[in-house]
Design a protein that fits this description.
This protein is an alpha/beta fold. 23% of the residues lie in helices and 11% in strands. The N and C termini lie far apart (51 Å).
């Protein structure tokens, strides 16, 4: 019997499917200790998970994560780009223009009010300014978000089968260049909270750049444990270049950020004192926005994450040509 219980809902990220050996476990209880045996990663039923994924090419129905090899390729792309802009200070812009594309069904399902959209943008600003942080745990990333436009599309097929039509949807609706955050809301299917592209992907496929989030995860939605807007916060973190805190597990280089402690696997709920990499310094970053914890548990980014987002902005988004 595996040493965790399915007590809540959790998430996962990435471009391509991987073998079961590489995928993260879905959920475990807060009382789990490092002395307990773990289920082999990837053996849990995918239907039991709420997933936040990074634009999987195989489709959102697959249980996918970023492999160490894929993460290393993204890192190599970043380092090469930083070499090209050597001497240019990596700094966040004052504002990121946001375009929200609301896709709904003819029966009204998925219709998101202007007020909830405003609330989502407010959540992004508060999160990236560090206003949810407790004590000295967080940082102001200096990224700001400003709503530029809202489009509304009534299309039953697009709403209920977003994953099957996402390439067409994004190609038809997307606005702006690399600096514009396009957010799509729809029914992403059972268990899927959201997904995002990475900055490194923009040059080869600019019309697909953006973030998709389940309509019921915006503030005021009815997705239990995930309705305070932090699916948006999490996915925008990917859009700005961040990996999950549990990237590479306990193995170096982790998530490529020095001030986020190593974490063997994704957190769920809001476990206290969790330490899945006891040989590494620090307890698991359960409350970090790039984990899979409940929205109410998420509180902060670190200074290292802020710097990495600024580097990705300078390398791939600032001054990039429009699509």
């Amino acid at each position: 019997m595996c040493a965790f219980t399915l007590t809540g809902l959790v998430a996962s990220t990435s471009p391509e499917p991987i073998s079961p050996e590489g995928s993260a476990p879905e959920n475990f209880s807060a009382s789990m200790t490092t002395n307990d045996p773990y289920c082999p990663p990837g053996t849990e039923p995918a239907s039991a998970a709420e997933r936040r994924v990074a634009d999987p090419d195989a489709g959102p129905a697959d249980n996918v994560v970023i492999t160490p090899e894929q993460a290393a390729e993204y890192e190599d792309d970043l380092q090469r780009a930083m070499e090209r802009i050597r001497g240019h200070e990596a700094a966040a812009p004052y504002t990121v223009p946001v375009v929200v594309h609301v896709i709904s069904a003819s029966d009204g399902s998925g219709e998101v009010s202007d007020g909830r959209i405003d609330d989502q943008v407010d959540v992004l600003n508060r999160a990236y300014q560090g206003e949810y942080a407790q004590g000295s745990e967080g940082t102001d990333t200096e990224f700001r978000f400003e709503l530029a436009d809202v489009t509304r599309t009534e299309n039953d097929t697009w709403f209920r089968e977003f994953g099957d039509h996402r390439d067409t949807i994004r190609a038809e609706l997307r606005q702006g260049g690399a600096e514009t955050l396009n957010i799509y809301t729809a029914d992403l299917g059972s268990g899927l909270l959201g997904f995002s592209t990475f900055p490194q992907d923009y040059a080869d496929n600019p019309e697909q750049d953006g973030v998709a989030i389940a309509h019921d995860t915006l503030p005021g939605g009815d997705r239990e444990n995930f309705n305070e807007g932090h699916t948006g916060t999490h996915e925008v973190g990917h859009w700005l270049g961040l990996f999950h805190t549990f990237q590479n597990g306990c193995e170096s280089p982790g998530d490529y950020i020095d001030d986020t402690p190593y974490e063997r696997e994704a957190a769920s709920g809001c476990p206290e004192g969790r330490d899945t990499c006891p040989e590494r310094q620090g307890e698991d970053p359960v409350t970090n926005f790039m984990n899979y914890s409940d929205d109410a548990c998420m509180t902060h980014f670190t200074q290292g994450q802020a710097q990495r987002m600024a580097e990705h902005w300078s390398a791939f988004r600032e001054g990039a040509p429009k699509a």
